[in-house]
Structure formats: structure tokens, C-alpha cells
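Homework help board

Subject: predicted structure for assignment chain

Our instructor gave us this sequence and asked us to write out the predicted structure in C-alpha cell form, then describe one feature. I got the C-alpha cells but I'm not sure how to describe them. Can anyone check?
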Amino acid sequence: QVQLVESGGGLVQPGGSLRLSCAASGSIFSINAMGWYRQAPGKQRELVARITSGGSTNYADSVKGRFTISRDNAKNTVYLQMNSLKPEDTAVYYCNALVVVTTTLRQYDYWGQGTQVTVSS
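My C-alpha cell output:
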């Protein structure tokens, strides 16, 4: 089994910054892409940012230039640095990882439990 544990959410004023972290642990052989998604009340879950094992990234248009995704492969951890936060960034943020597990060497899709980010004055 693989677990993803997120941290770093909270309440921040507009224009502020937060850094989310997500650490993967368990029966990990390798991790391919890792990413962050978010879901606001009444809306569908959407991709925020994604990073491959080689470091290639892609971002939602709404966060380009404000958010930065990075990863530490040695720690099986992905980060999301969020700057210039806006009220519309308010959502539950979920970590996602495509993990090849040691038991079967097959790839599976794992999700974290979610962390709340609220941007409000």
C-alpha cells in the first residue's frame, strides 16, 4: 500500500503565500508523475499543476506565474508554492501520484486526503 500525506493548507489573506507538501510512503518502487488538484464547493476537481519524474511541468492557466510545483525524488515528496493567492484559489487541494508498487511492479493512481486552502480577508 501507498499513502500520500499532505500538509501546509490554511487561511491566508489575498496576495499572500502558502506552501503545500505531499509525502508518499509505503510499497514504492518508483513514482512517475505527481500533481496537485483542487476542488471548490459546487465545482469539479481540476488539475492545478503536474510534474513528471524528469521534472517536466504543466499548470492550469489560472495559476501560471503564481504557483510553482517541485519535487524531491529522494524524499518522494512534491511541493506546491502558491504566491499571490486570490479568493478564487479557495478549495480543497489534493495530492496525486502515479506509483509503481514493489509488490507487482504495476502502476496505480493514489490520492491524498486533501488539505483546505482558504483565501479571505
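Reply (TA_rk): Your C-alpha cells look well-formed. For the description, you could write something like this. The two ends are 40 Å apart (CA to CA). That's the kind of observation they're looking for.
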